[in-house]
C-alpha cells in the first residue's frame, strides 16, 4: 500500500519559484551591502568617494532585474532562435577581446566601451550553455541518441577556452571546462568515457599550471601561505583571506569593521568578498550565504528536473552547474583549498558583466518555471501580480 506524500516546502512545485526569486534577491541585496563595505576603502583611494563602487553595482542591479523579467517572458521558440546563434556570437565576442581587448591584472579579457569596462566572457558562458542545450535537445528530439555528444558540443567549447587562454585567463577557461563537463554528464555520457574526459582535462590543467611559474607558485602556497618566502608574495592574498575568516568568530567583528579590507586583502569586493563576509558577519554570515546559494541551486535543478522540454532541462542544468562551479572556485580560493583563480561569487561579488550574465541565466530559469503548468496554476492564484 502506497502512502501519500504530503506537500511541503520542498515538494510543492510553486515553492521552487518562490525559492528561486527569494534566494536571488536575498543574495543580490547581500551583495550590495557587502560590496559597499568591502570596497569603501578601495573606492575612496581610487575614486575619491566611498560610494563610487557600490553605486555602480546598484546601477548594474537596476539594469539586471528588469532584464531578467523581460527574458523570463520570452517564449521557448524565441529562446531557440537566440540559441541557434549562441556559439557564433560567443566566438565573435571572444575574438573581439583578443583584437581590441584591455589587459587587467595580467589577463586580456576586458573591452573598454568608453564609460565602462565589460567582460564578454561572462555573457559567453550563458550563450554557450544556451547553444549547447539547444543542440542536445535537437539531438534528443530527432531520436539520434547514438550521436556522439562529445563531438556535438565539445569542439566549440574547447575553441572558446583556447580564445580565453590566449588572454591568459585560466580561471574563466576552467569555468568553461567544468560547465562542459556538467553538460556532458547530464546528457548521459557513459561513466568510463566521462572519467577519461576528466582525466584529459585535469592533465591539460596540470600542464598549463606547470608551464607558468606564477600559476605554480599559486598552487604551492596552498600548503602554507604563511611560509617564509611566500607570505609576502603569492601567499599574501590567501593568507589574509584566512586571517579575515579566522578573526570573525561566530557573529563577526561587525558590519563595516573589517580590518583586512584596509589594503591587506586585494580584490576584497570581488574575488575575496566571502572573506569579508566571514570577518564582518562571522560564521553566521558565511553559513547564511552558503544556505542562500544552496537554495538557489536546489530550485534551479528541481525546476530543470520538472521540465518535459529537453532544451529547458539541459539549459537549466547548465546554468546550475555554472553557478555551482563559480561558487566552489571562489569559496575554495577564499578558504585556501584551491588556488586563486580570479572567479567572482555569483550575485554577491562586485562586477557588472558577471551580475548581468547571471541574471540572464536566472531569467531563463524563471521562464522555465512559469511554463510549468502546476507552478503557473498556483501563481495565477497569487494576490501579487508581479510574481506571476
Automatic annotation (TrEMBL):
* One cellular component term from this protein's GO annotations in UniProt: plasma membrane
- Where it mainly occurs, coarsely classed, is membrane
Q: What is its EC number?
A: 2.4.99.28
The metabolic or biological pathway listed in the UniProt record of this protein is: Cell wall biogenesis; peptidoglycan biosynthesis
Please give, as recorded in its UniProt entry, the membrane topology of this protein: Multi-pass membrane protein
Which InterPro entries does the entry link to? FtsW, FtsW/RodA
Q: Where in the cell is it found?
A: Cell membrane
This protein's UniProt keywords: Cell cycle, Cell division, Cell membrane, Cell shape, Cell wall biogenesis/degradation, Glycosyltransferase, Membrane, Peptidoglycan synthesis, Transferase, Transmembrane, Transmembrane helix
Query: Any transmembrane segments, and where?
Result: 16-42, 48-69, 81-99, 119-137, 149-166, 172-189, 196-216, 281-305, 312-335, 347-369
Recorded GO molecular functions are: lipid-linked peptidoglycan transporter activity; peptidoglycan glycosyltransferase activity
Please give a single GO biological process term from the UniProt record: regulation of cell shape
Please list the reactions this protein catalyses. Answer: [GlcNAc-(1->4)-Mur2Ac(oyl-L-Ala-gamma-D-Glu-L-Lys-D-Ala-D-Ala)](n)-di-trans,octa-cis-undecaprenyl diphosphate + beta-D-GlcNAc-(1->4)-Mur2Ac(oyl-L-Ala-gamma-D-Glu-L-Lys-D-Ala-D-Ala)-di-trans,octa-cis-undecaprenyl diphosphate = [GlcNAc-(1->4)-Mur2Ac(oyl-L-Ala-gamma-D-Glu-L-Lys-D-Ala-D-Ala)](n+1)-di-trans,octa-cis-undecaprenyl diphosphate + di-trans,octa-cis-undecaprenyl diphosphate + H(+)
Question: PANTHER family per the record?
Answer: CELL CYCLE PROTEIN, PEPTIDOGLYCAN GLYCOSYLTRANSFERASE FTSW-RELATED
Protein name, as recorded: peptidoglycan glycosyltransferase
Amino acid at each position: 500500500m502506497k502512502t501519500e506524500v504530503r506537500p511541503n516546502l520542498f515538494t510543492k512545485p510553486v515553492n521552487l519559484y518562490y525559492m528561486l526569486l527569494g534566494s536571488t534577491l536575498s543574495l543580490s541585496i547581500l551583495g550590495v551591502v557587502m560590496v559597499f563595505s568591502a570596497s569603501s576603502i578601495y573606492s575612496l583611494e581610487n575614486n575619491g568617494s566611498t560610494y563610487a563602487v557600490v553605486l555602480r553595482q546598484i546601477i548594474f542591479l537596476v539594469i539586471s532585474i528588469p532584464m531578467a523579467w523581460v527574458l523570463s517572458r520570452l517564449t521557448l521558440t524565441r529562446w531557440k532562435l537566440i540559441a541557434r546563434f549562441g556559439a557564433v556570437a560567443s566566438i565573435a565576442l571572444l575574438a573581439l577581446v583578443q583584437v581590441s581587448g584591455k589587459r587587467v591584472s595580467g589577463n586580456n579579457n576586458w573591452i573598454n566601451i568608453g564609460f565602462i569596462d565589460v567582460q564578454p566572457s561572462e555573457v559567453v558562458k550563458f550563450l554557450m550553455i544556451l547553444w549547447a542545450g539547444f543542440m542536445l535537445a535537437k539531438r534528443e528530439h530527432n531520436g539520434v541518441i547514438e550521436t556522439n555528444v562529445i563531438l556535438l558540443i565539445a569542439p566549440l567549447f574547447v575553441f572558446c577556452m583556447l580564445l580565453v587562454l590566449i588572454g591568459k585567463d585560466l580561471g574563466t577557461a576552467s569555468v568553461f571546462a567544468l560547465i562542459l563537463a556538467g553538460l556532458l554528464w547530464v546528457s548521459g555520457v557513459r561513466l568510463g568515457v566521462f572519467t577519461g574526459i576528466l582525466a584529459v582535462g585535469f592533465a591539460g590543467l596540470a600542464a598549463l599550471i606547470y608551464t607558468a611559474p606564477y600559476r605554480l607558485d599559486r598552487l604551492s602556497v596552498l600548503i602554507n601561505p604563511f611560509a617564509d618566502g611566500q607570505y609576502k608574495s603569492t601567499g599574501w592574498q590567501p593568507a589574509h583571506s584566512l586571517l579575515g575568516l579566522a578573526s570573525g568568530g561566530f557573529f563577526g567583528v561587525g558590519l563595516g569593521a573589517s580590518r583586512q579590507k584596509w589594503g591587506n586583502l586585494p580584490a576584497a569586493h570581488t574575488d575575496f568578498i566571502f572573506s569579508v563576509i566571514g570577518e564582518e558577519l562571522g560564521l553566521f554570515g558565511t553559513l547564511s550565504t552558503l544556505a542562500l546559494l544552496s537554495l538557489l541551486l536546489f530550485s534551479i535543478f528541481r525546476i530543470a528536473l520538472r521540465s518535459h522540454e529537453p532544451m529547458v532541462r539541459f539549459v537549466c542544468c547548465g546554468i546550475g552547474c555554472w553557478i555551482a562551479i563559480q561558487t566552489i572556485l571562489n569559496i575554495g580560493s577564499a578558504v585556501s583549498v584551491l588556488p586563486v583563480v580570479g572567479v567572482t561569487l555569483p550575485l554577491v561579488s562586485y562586477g557588472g558583466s558577471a551580475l548581468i550574465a547571471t541574471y540572464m541565466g536566472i531569467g531563463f530559469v524563471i521562464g522555465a518555471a512559469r511554463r510549468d503548468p502546476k507552478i503557473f496554476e498556483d501563481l495565477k492564484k497569487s494576490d501579487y501580480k508581479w510574481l506571476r
